[in-house]
Design a protein that fits this description.
Shape: globular
Helix content: 25-40%
Mean pLDDT: 80
Distance between the termini: 14 Å
Low-confidence stretches: 1-124, 149-154, 253-261
Number of helices: 20
Strand content: 15-25%
Number of strands: 22
């Protein structure tokens, strides 16, 4: 295939600034050593001026025993493209794409804060502001590095940061740029689907180049990943925070509070070289900050105590958080008790695969804290009510989620105790996928909708304080026969979007009725009301026989405000519904409903081979499922972009489409597993 044009190709971006040429030319000594350290982030990531590792170096996970430390690294060049030694063999049909030019990346706002180092002392208020900006800058650089890997990137061990978190932590996340276990090999396989990454010997140099440009943009051109961060970064980033709470009225929010998000947040970054980490860190911090030694760590705080934030360095980690939080983390020496908390212990017990991203949350305590905040903010709102307790009782105590790479997909897995809504659905195979067109590109199904809704509402109906609200609700829907007549007959239900034969897009609900007679009564009643109302509002109602099934169509063509140009060409202002022996279909428009009725053996989504493979990844026996055909959506949306925005289309076609066209589909499903619910998903490539 023709290699896609990238923004750095000759003849493009005439105003783009070239990459900075003023970097030192010497190569790092540790690169010359040629060894990978399992404690180093991206052990084989070397500047793109060096010889790239062979594809064979990706064939197995990183070693688990410590290697001899590399020699101290010299500053590395900010290479833009590989030297001939790093280039792939000439016979390879996949030449690496050129790196993104600096001109296509915006400078992060915190870059200005680094320029104040060495400036005359600021006022206390400006000192707090500069500290907030400096800490925000550190977080942005670390976060950007983590994000690019996450998007690109026996029981596994958690990151070292878990041991520094306080026992009051309610949310905990890890980003594993060290690519534990099989994730290095899987990432290479995943990226091989995209232009420029087919030759796996070029994966690491190209990722290095992307990271260099992100860090250069974030630091206003002053730093790169390979030169300034990789030499000390251990590849593990952990973030924890406590329960949300309103601050005391007398305690104002400071810039540092805004930068950190909350006084109880702690960020832990694994390091491999304390001296190099300190050199990098001090390049961000304002010159008027205070440094002190504390329990074997160096701690920097603002000269203005009201800033309330601190940064610390130990031999193992970099810590960011409140002054008290950082001191407590230093005191813990990485041996905190959070891993022994009952909720966290139960969550981690379910993690059995290597991952690049992990998140654990104490769900029920978190919701409890939010209701407490509501009560404090609006005293009396929750007094004398059991609404908050009823909601909290239905929510699981915890939830754990991971993301990992497979050779052809970025996959996610979540697990949590089942929601206690008062109705236990069971896993079963979808029947509705056999009643929707094979061309369906958005499909979201939930099982046992009617019984589940009835169970949830029953819990709230039992509360004395909801009696008046439910009386009003029941009276409103009594005109249609009451709750059971409107929703009680619903079984499995799906939201569906699919193209019609003429290329227009239709969509709506497809429902498996538990009681066909009840469904027919409801829609007969609705048709009668709409016929009466339509005579005075410009809405016409007509029926059409379609293979023995009646389709009712509501035509809004003559409704007030509707003009011939109100909708795109080919689209009609209509809504339709039909009740067959097996399904109820309702939505836009007549052709969509007809396509549901026509979907038969061999011509529906369930019979599609591609869909079968996708649902097989997450389990066809489930409680709910979601499917999105990215390729089909792109095919429908791209002509609209080309017509509506020709200039944007040109940039999209050259810079985005070559990569986006390799994303295939998204599939996910939730299934019951004893007392737990498991949600598995995948975004696949092709």
């Amino acid at each position: 295939m023709t290699e896609p044009r990238t923004p750095g190709d000759p003849g493009q971006e005439p105003n783009a600034e070239p990459a900075a040429p003023d970097q030192p030319a010497s190569a790092p000594a540790d690169a010359a050593a040629g060894g990978d350290s399992p404690t180093e982030a991206w052990p084989s990531l070397r500047p793109s001026s060096e010889s790239a590792p062979s594809a064979a170096s990706w064939s197995s996970p990183a070693p688990t025993t410590p290697a001899t430390p590399d020699a101290p690294a010299e500053p590395t060049p900010d290479a833009v493209e590989p030297t001939p030694a790093a280039a792939p063999a000439a016979a390879s049909p996949y030449e690496p794409t050129d790196p993104l030019p600096d001109s296509r990346l915006e400078t992060s706002g915190f870059g200005a804060s680094t320029a104040v180092v060495g400036a005359p002392p600021a006022t206390r208020s400006r000192s707090g502001l500069r500290w907030g900006l400096a800490l925000l800058g550190i977080l942005i650089v670390i976060g950007a590095t983590a994000l690019i890997v996450y998007l690109a990137g026996g029981r596994p061990a958690s990151a070292n940061g878990l041991g520094y978190m306080p026992a009051t932590t309610a949310q905990y996340s890890e980003v594993r740029l060290d690519l534990p276990g099989d994730q290095r090999q899987k990432l290479a396989g995943f990226l091989a689907s995209f232009p420029g990454f087919k030759d796996q010997s070029q994966v690491e140099p190209k990722l290095n180049d992307v990271l260099d440009r992100i860090v250069r943009a974030a630091s206003d051109g002053k730093q790169t990943y390979t030169t300034d961060i990789a030499p000390w970064f251990g590849g593990q980033v952990s973030i924890g925070s406590g329960l949300p709470a309103l601050p005391p009225i007398a305690v104002p929010q400071t810039p540092a509070d805004a930068a950190m998000g909350a006084d109880n947040m702690l960020v832990v970054v694994g390091i491999t070289d304390r001296t190099k980490a300190q050199t990098w860190l001090t390049s961000f911090l304002p010159a008027d900050g205070k440094k002190e030694s504390y329990n074997g760590a160096d701690i920097w705080t603002a000269s203005n105590p009201s800033a309330g934030a601190a940064v610390a360095l130990t031999d193992k980690v970099l810590l960011l958080g409140s002054v008290s939080g950082v001191r407590a983390a230093v005191d813990s020496k990485g041996e905190g008790s959070l891993a022994n908390d009952a909720d966290f212990k139960a969550a981690f017990a379910q993690i059995d695969r290597d991952y690049v991203l992990l998140s654990v949350i104490r769900t029920r305590p978190y919701v409890d804290a939010v209701t407490t905040m509501v009560d404090k903010a609006s005293p009396g709102v929750l007094a004398g009510t059991q609404l908050d307790e009823t909601i909290t009782a239905m929510i699981p105590a915890w939830q754990a989620s991971i993301a990992r790479f497979e050779n052809d997909a970025l996959v996610s897995s979540s697990v949590y105790p089942s929601y206690a809504i008062g109705y236990d659905s069971t896993n079963h195979k979808s029947t509705l996928t056999g009643h929707v067109p094979a061309t369906t590109f958005i499909y979201a199904e939930t099982h046992d909708v009617g019984p589940a809704l009835s169970a949830v509402l029953a819990r709230f109906r039992a509360l004395p304080e909801t009696k008046a609200a439910f009386q009003a609700f029941d009276q409103a829907i009594s005109i249609l026969g009451g709750f059971d007549a409107v929703l009680g007959w619903w079984g499995d239900a799906a939201f569906v979007v699919a193209p019609g034969a003429d290329g227009t897009i239709g969509g709506g609900l497809v429902i498996q009725p538990r009681d066909k007679a009840a469904a027919e009564r409801l829609f007969t009643t609705l048709r009668g009301f709409l016929t009466l109302a339509g005579s005075s509002s410009g809405i016409t109602v007509r029926d059409e026989d379609h293979g023995g099934t009646k389709i009712t169509i509501l035509d809004f063509s003559t409704a007030p405000g509707m003009t011939p140009g109100s909708l795109p060409a080919g689209f009609k202002p209509e809504f339709a519904f039909a009740v067959s022996n097996d399904v109820v279909a309702a939505g836009y428009g007549r052709d969509f409903v007809a396509s549901v009725l026509d979907a038969g053996a061999g011509s529906n989504l369930a019979a599609d081979d591609r869909y079968k493979k996708l649902i097989g990844r997450v389990g066809e026996e489930n409680l709910s499922l979601t499917y999105v055909d990215i390729s089909a959506m792109r095919g429908l949306i791209e002509p609209l972009i080309r017509q509506a925005a020709p200039e944007a289309w040109t940039a999209y076609e050259s810079d985005i489409k070559p990569y986006l066209e390799h994303l295939d589909a998204v599939i996910s499903a939730i299934r019951r597993d004893g007392s737990l619910d498991r949600a598995d998903g995948a975004m696949t490539t092709r």
